[in-house]
Design brief:
Blueprint: H1 2-11, E1 14-18, H2 22-36, E2 41-45, H3 48-57, E3 66-70, H4 77-87, E4 96-100, H5 105-113, E5 118-121, H6 126-135, H7 142-151
């Protein structure tokens, strides 16, 4: 019984989504549910200020498993959120995926310099999101299946 409970807890993914556009937030939630199932817990911050306040309150025990951050929040807010995540010790090791419509190489490079795990283009695609989740270890079984395929 205890093992089953532990597995159920492990399967759920807690996400902090920082997105000011309601339509883009809906797309992100929909894609996350399609890839991760209904067991996700999504906390939605509508601006950088709200996100930074939430980040400051997280502890080692209750931080999200993933941050999804819109780069183009007002006043360069996406960069501020990314910096806040990486500066807060309880969240520094949590993957941050930046979602953007920006094609500027400098923006993308700065995201990685600030510690982003991935930069995903809008509209968010299920395939790319799933691939990046597997790469950072948030999707179980994908890496194992790839390993088994390769070893044959």
């Amino acid at each position: 019984m205890k093992e089953t409970q532990t597995l159920q807890d492990y399967d759920g993914v807690r996400i902090l989504l920082v997105e000011d556009n309601p339509d883009h937030a809906f797309v992100a939630l929909t894609v996350a549910r399609q890839v991760l199932g209904e067991s996700i817990e999504l906390v939605h911050a509508q601006n950088a200020e709200e996100a930074i306040e939430l980040i400051a309150q997280f502890t080692e025990e209750d931080h999200p498993d993933l941050f999804l951050v819109d780069l183009r929040l007002p006043d360069n807010g996406g960069f501020s959120v990314l910096s806040s995540v990486k500066a807060h010790s309880a969240c520094a090791g949590v993957p941050v995926m930046v979602i953007t419509s920006s094609l500027y190489d400098r923006d993308i490079a700065e995201c990685y310099e600030l510690g982003a795990s991935a930069v995903l283009c809008k509209p968010l695609s299920r395939g790319k999101f799933r691939e990046e989740l597997a790469r950072v270890g948030l999707v179980r079984g994908v890496n194992k299946a790839l390993y088994l395929t390769i070893s044959h």
